[in-house]
Amino acid sequence: MIPFLWLILLTHIRWVHTADLANVQTSQVQNIFILAGQSNMSGRGGVINHGQNGMVNETWDGVIPPECKPNPNILRFSAGFQWVEAQEPLHQDIDLGKVCGVGPGMSFANSILKRDPSIGVIGMVPCAIGGTNISEWARGGVLYNHMIRRTEAALQGGGKLQALLWYQGESDTETLEDAKLYKFRLKRLFKNVLHDLQSPTLPVIQVSLASSIGPYKEQVRKAQLGINLPNVRTVDAKGLPVGMDYLHITTLAQVQLGQLLADAFLQTQTTQAVLLPIQPVTCNAPKSCSNFVFDLLLSPFR
Ligand SMILES: *[C@@H]1O[C@H](CO)[C@@H](O)[C@H](O)[C@H]1NC(C)=O
Ligand SMILES: *[C@@H]1O[C@H](CO)[C@@H](O)[C@H](O)[C@H]1NC(C)=O
Ligand SMILES: *[C@@H]1O[C@H](CO)[C@@H](O)[C@H](O)[C@H]1NC(C)=O
Fold this sequence. Notes:
It is built from 8 helices and 9 strands. The protein is of the alpha/beta class.
C-alpha cells in the first residue's frame, strides 16, 4: 500500500514538474502563504474511522465551522497550478491517498481578513503531506522540491510571499536518534527554504507538538521551542484537543490553531516587529552539502 501511495505522489509531482510555470495566470492574490508539514497541517479535523477490529475505514464528516467557510478573498493554489477559491479540505488534491479533513488554513485566512480587512486577497499554497518525517523534507528531496516549485509558480501570478506555516514533528518522535537530530534538521530546513525562495526575512510560524505517540516527544518539543532563528515564531499546540484517534487535533482545535497562527503572523507585521535576515546554511564543499552526508557526519549512530 505504501509504495503504491508513493507512486501516486511521484507521478503527480512529476506532472507538476513539467507544467509550464510561465502559464500561471496573473491573479489578484496579494498575500501568499505556504502551508507545509504533516497531517495536522494537511488537516484531519472531522475524519472518523468507522473500521472495526483494527480495520481502517475513514470518512470526513463534512462539518465546516463558520470560521472555515469559503470567502471570495481566500484562494488556494491547486495541484494543477491554478488559483481557485479555497475550501475545505484544503489539501485534498495535494495530500493524496488520505482522507483529508479540516486543517488550520481556512481558519487562519478568515481570521487574518477579519482582523486586517485591508490586507487584500489571500492565496494559500498547500504542500503538507501526512506521515512525513523531517528527513523527507530535506533540501533536494521530492517534498522540498515540490514546495519550492509550487511557491515559485504561485508567485509568478503576482503577490507577496508573507510566511511559511509549518506543523510537523510527530514522525520524528519514534527514535532517540531522530529526536536528537530534530533541531539541527529543522533549523537547516528553515534556512534553506528562505534562501532558496530568496526571502531571508520571511516569517516562519511553526506549531510545537503537545503530545505524541512516539516516546521522544519531549526532545522534539524542546527542539521546536528552542529554535533560535530570527523571524521564527512558535505557536504551542498544548491544550488543543486531540481527537478519538489520539493522533490528530480536532476540527475545533484547528479553528483555534488557525486563529493562533493568524495572531502570530500579524504580530510580525506590526511596526515594532523587526525582521532580520536569516543567514544561509554555509558549506565549503557544496556537493557534500547533501543531507545524506550531513546526517551521516552528524549522527553518532551510523
Ligand atoms: C465504511 O464505513 C461506512 C460508514 O459507516 C460504511 O457505509 C461503509 O460500508 C464502510 N466500508 C467498508 C469497506 O467497510
Ligand atoms: C523517514 O521516512 C522515510 C520514508 O518513510 C524512511 O525511509 C526513513 O527511514 C525515515 N527517516 C528517518 C530519519 O526517520
Ligand atoms: C498532531 O498534533 C497533536 C497536538 O500537538 C499531537 O499530539 C499529534 O501527535 C500530532 N499528530 C501528528 C500525526 O502529527
